[in-house]
Specification:
By secondary structure, the protein is of the alpha/beta class. It folds into three domains: 101 residues, Rossmann fold (3-Layer(aba) Sandwich), CATH 3.40.50.10800; 87 residues, NadA-like (Rossmann fold), CATH 3.40.50; 79 residues, Rossmann fold. It has 14 helices and twelve strands. The structure holds 1,3-dihydroxyacetonephosphate (13P) and iron/sulfur cluster. Iron/sulfur cluster (SF4) binds next to loops.
């Protein structure tokens, strides 16, 4: 049997969900490819007993939380987002004690234990909208300092308290203003799309700041023919595939998330066949953390 036919056979009882940064081969056989928000939304509508989640730890944990009666698998357990580990639950409790009137909004790129302490979670696609919708004037936000800066810029009427002081995505930190300026000089008609995990000085050079899925949507809808893209390189695959007449220029070709790329094709196939890497979450913590996730899903 050919590999693609074997995959179709194996997928009869298993849905494959993949993040936009996964390798092209995995994206091409996935049932759904999207950003963190889209993946959560899709995970609420699964009708198969297995979910093979191709992304990083916090995303697979969300899928497991939303599907307690299903088995969530990962091609590689070591696919862990380093930023998600930058905010321990105790830091959140400490901030709450210090600012008792503030709401706690955590970026979904956070470990489950910390998310269990949040009032609501958000993604890069909806952080501004969610924070605007809250009645509280003070917001404890973490762990991404760059996303916090983006929110503060768009919601100046609120005070954003960042925890930890300098949490960040090491992949998006690689983008520098000169990458954008050089690309703009070469492609003066291009639109610049920047992910809000990039540093403020890079965000300031953007035409649009958006999540990965919002970049895909914008590239389709915009009349521009050329786009400079400042996010992880994996997004280029869908951008090119879904917009054959348009040109996409990576602002920095070496912006690769090594955690996302731990899901190799070999590990993907091994897991689809073997179903051994089951995502296990603490049921007590999951029940607490689910509230902040459900609240976000209701708000968007
Ligand atoms: P989105 O795909 O939600 O924009 O997130 C980007 C990211 O870095 C996920 O880890
Ligand atoms: Fe984490 Fe950044 Fe990789 Fe996303 S790109 S998984 S935020 S390290």
């Amino acid at each position: 049997m050919g590999e693609l036919r074997e995959i179709e056979e194996l997928k009869k009882d298993c849905i494959v969900l993949a993040h936009n940064y996964q390798i092209p081969r995995i994206q091409d056989v996935a049932d759904f490819v999207g950003d963190s928000l889209g993946l959560c939304q899709r995970a609420t509508k699964v009708d198969k007993p297995y979910i093979l989640f191709c992304g990083v730890d916090f995303m697979a944990e969300s899928a497991a939380m939303l599907n307690p009666d299903k088995t969530v698998l990962m091609p590689e357990f070591m696919a862990k987002c380093p930023m998600a580990a930058q905010l321990p639950a105790e830091k959140v409790r400490e901030a709450r004690r210090k600012y008792p009137d503030a709401a706690v909004v955590l970026y979904i790129n956070t470990r489950l234990e910390a998310r269990a302490e949040a009032d609501i979670v958000c993604t890069s696609a909806n952080a501004v909208k969610i924070i605007k919708s809250l009645p509280e004037k003070e917001i404890i936000f973490g762990p991404d300092w760059a996303l916090a800066w983006h929110v503060q810029r768009n919601v100046p009427e609120k005070k954003i308290i960042t925890i930890p002081a300098q949490g960040a995505c090491r992949t998006h930190l690689l983008f520098k203003p000169e990458h954008i300026l050089e690309a703009r000089e070469k492609y003066p008609n291009a639109e610049v799309l920047v992910h809000p995990e990039c540093k403020p000085e890079v965000q300031l050079l953007a035409d649009k700041i958006c999540s990965t899925e919002q970049m895909i949507r914008w590239a389709k809808e915009s009349n521009s023919r050329e786009f400079i893209i400042a996010t992880e390189i994996g997004l280029l695959h869908r951008l090119k595939k879904e917009n054959p007449g348009k040109t996409f220029i990576p602002a920095y070709k070496r912006a690769v998330c090594i955690s996302m790329k731990k899901n190799t094709w070999e590990k993907f196939m091994e897991e689809l066949r073997g179903r051994k890497n089951v995502v296990k979450i603490d049921p007590v913590i999951a029940e607490k953390a689910r509230k902040s996730l459900d609240r976000m899903l209701k708000a968007v």
